[in-house]
Specification:
About 30% of the residues lie in helices and about 30% in strands. α2 crosses α3. The protein has about 90 residues and is α+β, with helices and mostly antiparallel strands.
Length: about 90
């Protein structure tokens, strides 16, 4: 089994053939890929839009904590989003 332990120093980016964008018709962020499209709910888009291939997981967590200071347990949610995106192969480790 693959070790999907997300580390603070890890850096992720969108997988090849995946595109992230705001979709006006959906009023949400989406990930487009050859097989279709996935609509990202809530904070998921906020996480994915920060994955530029340079920011570490720690950077993304710190940025989101600063952006949404009232969000409780935000770190757990962010790591959960990384784990989900990784399991769906929307993102890959740099």
């Amino acid at each position: 089994m693959m070790d999907n332990q997300i580390q603070n120093a890890d850096i992720y980016t969108l997988s090849p053939h995946h595109r992230f964008q705001w979709e006006e018709a959906q009023s949400s962020y989406v990930i487009l890929f050859p097989e279709g499209m996935v609509k990202l709910h809530g904070g998921a888009g906020e996480v994915i839009k920060r994955l530029d291939g340079k920011a570490t997981v720690g950077d993304v967590v710190a940025d989101l904590k600063a952006t949404f200071p009232d969000a409780e347990n935000i770190e757990k949610d962010i790591i959960g989003m990384y784990e989900l995106a990784l399991s769906k192969t929307w993102i890959r480790k740099v």
